[in-house]
Amino acid sequence: MSTHQSVSTRAAVASLILGRIIYAVNWYSLAAVFSFTASELNENVSGLGLATSAFFIGIGVFQVPGGILAAKIGPRLTAIFGTTVSSLAALLTGFVGNLLEITILRFFVGLGMAFVFAPGVILMARFLHKGTEGLGVGLYNSAFSLGGVVGLSGWAVLATTVGWRISLITGGLLGLGTSVLMWFLVPIDNQRLDFTIELRHLRLILLDKWLVILSIAMLGLQAGSTVYSSFMAYYLNRVLYLSAGEAGTIASLVSLFALASSPFAGKLFDRYGNVKQLLLASGALMTIGVGIAFFGSVYSAILAGILIGLAAGTGFTFGFSAARAANRLDQEYETLSVSWVNSISLFGDFVPPLLYSYFAIQYGYSLAWLYMAVLSFLLIIPLLLKKVPKKK
Prior knowledge:
single chain; 392 residues; Growth Hormone, Chain: A; globular
């Protein structure tokens, strides 16, 4: 690789990582500021659950369309399009007047993000050396985790300082800025002019039993991570009476420890063949972490955040690396394989926020955490039923 190519590649990777960080900020920012939003709009935890579910419906339903679009026009343009849509919706959330408007805009934030993740994974894997693709996925997940730390802790402080509306508008503007950077710094895709998506190939991917079981396991990980990241800041502020800044800092522990564990998980995936064992270990850790929140203290919340973060950082890296490696078709279908796994796990994730908010209102927060731990455990079990195909 020439010096010019090396510099160009580093600039492309840097723009993707920065875009992923701001992507995560806009993912978590509403959860960080919702205690302020709820006070102004006279809402409670059920409002947060509804908005969060709308987000996951948007991001889940449009994963496969995003993968198909990436196969046709390339991952670069698809990622730029998705970043622009999600950032505009995040920006407009700062101007809402009621919960319905928040819910609709969070759906569009999710819709836009559905076109970003899988293309970003493929681009990161392509820009790194052969044999280190798992590390590329780990770095991309680390960037998301760093954005989660900034979004949950930094945006809570920002909302305290300048107001929740300005904080959400800021996230949207930063996201639009990353779209511009990717346009100029990420190289144009080398798309095959003769490539066409064939129905039989789509069927092979969408009916792949390993990808479906992998998706269910990812949903188990996603469910635990989502309820902690979405509700812990609100819970600590409203139930345990911590300040918004303190609550956001504790809630960001998930992202902080996922940040630390994701690159390690990527290297482990590149060297270790048994992805089933790796995912089962991550799933067990997730179940324990969510269950510990049952004890209802600041210390249990901290420990839960650490364990959930480690489980999310390793589990998501293992899962998405395995989804990419499972592709047996042309490289244009790599994005679709990752999108399909992400689609099932994220679309299914609209249920846990609704369940958690319902259980919290009906039975109290402690039992709500315990029920979510049981749900995460049950969704990991199908991994035991399927033999893992060899890595590509």
